[in-house]
Design brief:
InterPro entries: GH123_cat (IPR025150), Glyco_hydro_123_N_2 (IPR053850). The chain has 588 residues and is an alpha/beta fold. Helices cover 28% and strands 26% of the residues. It is globular. The N and C termini lie far apart (77 Å).
């Protein structure tokens, strides 16, 4: 009898323990992905061994959900980083079996000298898929049904557990932010994958921290200008624009941008500066009101709150106000005499144009001086023609010459107004003359380049190879630019978590991050290239200051390999070798 009772108690303990383990084994809640419109039908999943398969792999691979990974299986990851740098690793999980629940975790990082970096420096993200299309002709109106569609692995969901379905490939993205005060050395950690009903899997992580410090992002010199769309955030989350709830949602996603080195605050001076090109149109951040007596008043409440929030996050180098030359030359204001909003078409140089902008500039200058923002404000234009630009500049230089202009130029017209463009960005593939760049640098002007729907390479579409984002930073340094401009940080499509396609451009052209402050593979790879550019700048300065001529020459020869407008045959290997050489030079 005692034996029976003892056996029952033992079974009870085992059953209770098992139930507790199952109860603890929870899967994070996440949004539903879109249905795969073109699943691969030629995959031999029956040849895949039983159970969950896992491997460390390159961050330059964009996996396909329905395809078996074609990689050499690895269980170790090795990286090198500066103090203050972010390093990234990608793993991939796949299974032929039915639903497989997995939990992941990473241990503290311990060095060979006994130093420790906490596990909290790492963030685990399961990569989610979004609908994408193809480049085709690039710019131009398009209907989704007219282009091949597929799923692209892109959105980073910051959860450490997930349900892997049968015949599915699921990437995992791990970022590791090395503290600036980390002690140099090689740190090791263990990445563990706990699989429900199966044996756990472990991956060995090793990261070598070298004795070189990357500054805080706010101190980076790389001039990053990704245009922000706060109105998309309000629409997606169904909150009142500029309410407390709206600002609460804006802060984390804009902090992510600040942490990538963003330097510019995007401001809409008037309504719809780009017409209706985005799903969420830009409203005026300054209220224009014409009084019954014909005088003007301007309410800067929204403008002030938006700019101050961005500055508090660390984005404080420049305010770009769009636009004195909007698409279609259409402007909006509220007319008190008629008690309604008025839309007026006023081309630069016309009497109507002067009547609008002369009083605005006078009061805008005074307001900016009160705020202490007058020296960093630019009147910004996007791809406007020379005739309109000249007429606008004539008025601006007469009434507010201290502002200067920020201009995205696809007309190759920068030579027409060399002293007015304090911030100029030229289309990729149309380099600025070396002598002009030299003069601009001497004057303290900013010179960057941009990519758009017209560029098959390099780009940050949802179907773009991830390495292209990293190339952008290297190209900026090779072509002697100060940074990079992209028109779209978060101009979301109607359903950005499911479908990155848009009515006018290749998929992903309108945004690079996702709602609820989710990052993406392409944004992280772009950030990686910016960090590389900053490291190049730091080493150039260091070698020059220490008269290390040979090392400086080696560095410049390395960077020069990226001064090209066509895609290298093996871009991934070129970047891998360059990064390795860059870190070797850092230890000189």
């Amino acid at each position: 009898m005692k034996l029976f009772i003892k056996s029952v108690l033992m079974l009870s303990v085992i059953w209770t323990s098992s139930c507790q383990q199952q109860k603890v084994f929870t899967i994070a809640q996440t949004y539903q992905e879109p249905v795969d419109p073109s699943p691969a039908t030629n995959q031999n999943w029956s040849a895949v061994p039983q159970g969950l398969q896992a491997s460390v792999t390159s961050t330059n691979i964009r996996f396909v959900k329905s395809e078996i990974p074609k990689i050499e299986v690895q269980s170790t990851w090795n990286g090198t980083a500066w103090k203050g740098e972010r390093s990234a690793a990608q793993l991939v999980l796949w299974s032929k079996d039915s639903l497989t629940e997995v939990n992941t975790k990473i241990s503290d990082f311990k060095s060979d000298s006994g130093a420790t970096l906490p596990a909290s420096i790492a963030t685990i993200n399961f990569v989610k898929y979004v609908l994408t299309d193809v480049f085709d002709q690039g710019c131009g109106h398009r209907k989704p049904e007219d282009f091949p569609s597929s799923l692209a692995a892109d959105a980073l969901e910051p959860v450490n557990s997930f349900a892997i379905h049968a015949q599915e490939t699921r990437p995992v993205w791990v970022t590791m932010d090395i503290p600036q005060d980390a002690k140099p050395g090689t740190y090791t950690s263990t990445f563990t994958i706990d699989v429900k009903g199966q044996a756990s899997k472990t991956m060995a992580f090793s990261i070598r921290v070298i004795d070189k410090v990357l500054p805080q992002a706010s101190d980076w010199k790389f001039h990053l200008d990704l245009w922000q769309n706060p109105y998309a955030v309000a629409r997606f989350h169904d909150v009142e624009p500029w309410s407390d709830a709206h600002f609460d949602l804006l802060k984390p996603i804009m902090k992510r941008l600040a942490d990538a080195g963003q330097k510019v605050i995007t401001v809409s001076l008037n309504k719809r500066p780009w017409g209706g090109q985005t799903y969420d149109q830009f409203e005026a951040m300054i209220e224009w009101r014409k009084k019954a007596d014909g005088t003007w008043t301007y309410d800067y409440t929204i403008f002030d709150k938006w700019v101050q929030m961005m500055m508090d996050l660390g984005i404080k180098n420049q305010i770009s106000g769009y636009s004195m030359v909007p698409w279609g030359n259409e402007f909006y204001y509220f007319d008190e005499a008629e008690n309604k909003e008025i839309k007026v078409k006023a081309a630069p140089g016309s009497p109507e144009y002067k009547d609008l902008w002369i009083p605005f500039l006078a009061k805008f200058k005074s307001h900016l001086e009160e705020k202490g923002w007058n020296t960093i404000t630019r009147i910004a234009m996007d791809e406007r023609g020379p005739e309109e630009m000249k007429a606008m500049l004539e008025l601006l230089n007469e009434h507010a010459p201290e502002f200067g202009v920020s201009f995205a130029d696809n007309h190759k017209s920068y030579k027409l107004y060399p002293d007015d463009l304090k911030d100029m960005s030229v289309a990729f593939g149309h380099p600025v003359d070396a002598e002009d760049l030299k003069i601009r640098k001497a004057n303290g002007y900013i010179s960057t380049f941009y990519v758009s729907c017209a560029d098959a390479f390099p780009n940050t579409f949802t179907f773009s190879p991830p390495a292209e984002g990293t190339f952008i930073g290297w190209y900026a340094m090779a072509a002697d630019f100060d940074g990079f401009l992209r028109w779209s940080y978060n101009s979301w499509t109607e359903n950005p978590l499911q479908d990155s396609r848009f009515r006018t451009w290749p998929a992903g052209d309108t945004y690079s991050v996702y709602p609820n402050n989710r990052s993406s593979i392409r944004f992280e790879k772009l950030r990686e290239g910016i960090v590389d550019a900053e490291k190049i700048r730091i080493l150039r300065d260091d070698f020059s200051n220490r008269s290390m001529t040979a090392e400086l020459q080696e560095l410049n020869q390395l960077v020069e390999k990226f001064n090209r407008n066509t895609k290298p045959e093996d871009l991934e290997r070129l970047l891998e070798d360059a990064k390795k050489q860059l870190n070797q030079l850092a230890e000189k």
